[in-house]
Amino acid sequence: MLTATNFISLSDNPFSRRGSYLAFFLDPTGNTLYGKPRLYISNIRGNGPYRQIQAQIVKDGQALPTVVSSTESEVILESMAGSFRFCIGESKFVRIKGTDGLTLRLTPKLSGFGLVTDLKDGCWQFGFSTSTAVLLPFTGKVSARVMSSRVLMGTSSATFEIAPDENGVVDVGIEEYLIDPIHRPLDQYPSYEECVKSYQDEFDTFCEKLCPSLPEPWEDMRRKALWTIFGLMVENDNGETIFKHTMIKMLHGTFEHVSGWQQAMHIICLSGSDPALCWTILRALFDYQDANGRIADILTDIGWNHGSMKPPIQGLALNYLLDADPELKYVSREDAEIIYKGIVGWTQFFFRCRDWNKDGLMENQGAGETGWEDAPYFNIGFPLASPDMNAYVAIQLQAQARLGRLLGKDEAECAAFEKHYQDMVDMIVKSFWDGEKWFAFNTDTGARSQTNTISLMGALILGKALPQDIIDKTIKTLTEKDKYLTPYGFATEAVDSPYFNHAFAQGSIIPPAQLIFCLALERSGRFDLAREAGLRYLMTLREEGLFHTHNALTGKPERGMVALDEKFLFWSAWSSSIYLFMSQRYGKVE
Question: Which band of pLDDT confidence, cut at 50, 70 and 90, is reported for residue 315?
Fold first, then answer.
């Protein structure tokens, strides 16, 4: 009986490549038991569904039971009779090779008016989600079964079977096109072996530059975390998508998009390793800034949600970048000017558009703006003023003053930003602290939050700018046993709260809570507690996987998510960046 051997199982993390919209998925159930998994070559452009071409091994006309294995650079479809190997050799090119005398069956899932066309040179063209694909037979004989619909003329379905040559070899490619395909001569494509080398060399270089090593015992997950980030990176592709600079998507499948506040967290986590990359990511956010100064939070390859936004932690990220690069060695003057103008506009947005009663405090207008979309304290309704969001705006004022001075901006302007920062800190304490705890309130009704949601303590990110007694009381609450600090990290709702539930911001272990509150503890002078909490989360990620959400009571992944055709959440770049950051920061054995 065959058992899969994996670098990372595709049931946990689909296989892709930096800058590519090709990926390998298993079927939505993610079942890896021999004979169960179905392997798909996928196009992850647009909004899904993401499984378009099923790949099967065929012998004597019968599809064989298989397992799916992986290495860092290959996917392997294995049967008892032999195997086929797959690699993303170029951003738009997959090459597949088998040498065991078996037939490869490829079944595209076509929809709408997806045509299947015989190109009369041995190659076949067919619809590939929002793109077009060309099947390129390098070795082996293609047999195509094409069926046209009589209901919608011009639509068709197809099955391709590629039989081995006299030496038992099948060697084919699939190339993606966004325009009418004109493919290269077949001898101008990289060989399968060259594809694997290209992938592996690029990934090795990425690892060496971003994080060449980690302290034990965290090293064994290092390349897996880097591979997760690597496969979720988007690049400037000369206008084929909206992306003009490098950014990092959230995770494959359900959240196949870039998130603006997650970019800020990637910057914080990676600023000490690759400040040039982080400046690029920060610069990228201002490609999607509207006339009022808002930067979009949800970006896909085909567009962005103009109404989307998340908390403005870009100022916090900018502070970390300036700490890592105080002389601006890794950012051009032109880009630094764009970032300065952009972040000033982003801050101004909140005073223009999120302070309706003009009392100097910012208000969220809906749950989607908060970063904690299902938090129970939203039961008091909106507009909602909260301490965390106002703290982020204050820090952004401080950060833009720092960058402004480095760029030689008017000192009066920079000093005004700093004074506004101090004024906001004072206002946050006066407005959101009741002497014992933090609260949010509805600015229309005056109703105060009564839940134990961790984000209500988010003003702790102000650190030493807060009065010491407030710092001490907040930390005591945050680290009290059997409340927020579980054996697996910080829960988003205290586990003894009547509002506790197994949901994103109702009690789960999620990436933003771990990073924000570890940094808050550090900035409050308690690196020891930050390290304790960080090590708990690190152990959860190392033992349970780099998933998006973990259970606060067991540490197990909370994978359930019904959206598009997905049933599970996969490993995330968010968790992966935090893993690298915390491993380097907290992981050394003393």
Answer: very high
> What amino acid is encoded at 322 in this protein?
L
Q: Nearest to residue 576, comparing CAs of 542, 525, 534, 527?
A: 542
pTM of the model: 0.96
pLDDT digits (tens, 9 = 90+) for 383-399: 999 999 999 999 999 99
3-state helix, strand, coil in the chain (%, to 5): 35, 25, 40
- CA-based nearest residue to 375, from 362, 388, 359: 388
The structure tokens listed for 180 are: 């009418």
- As a whole number of Å, the CA-based R_g of the chain is 26
Name the amino acid, one letter, at 343: I
- 348 Cβ neighbours under 8 A, 6+ residues apart: 293
Beta bridge partners of 568: 560
Which structure tokens are listed for 250?
Answer: 């959230």
CA–CA separation, 90 and 103 (whole Å): 24
Instruction: Return the structure tokens found at 535.
Output: 């090590």
The answer to whether 156 and 149 are in contact (CB under 8 A) is yes
Phi, psi of 507 (to 5 degrees): 135, 0
Cα gap 418→566, rounded to integer Å: 47
What gap in Å lies between CA 387 and CA 453, rounded to an integer? Answer: 12
Find the helix or strand (DSSP H, E) in which 475 lies: helix 468-479
Phi-psi region of 154 (alpha: psi -120 to 50; beta: other; left: phi over 0): left
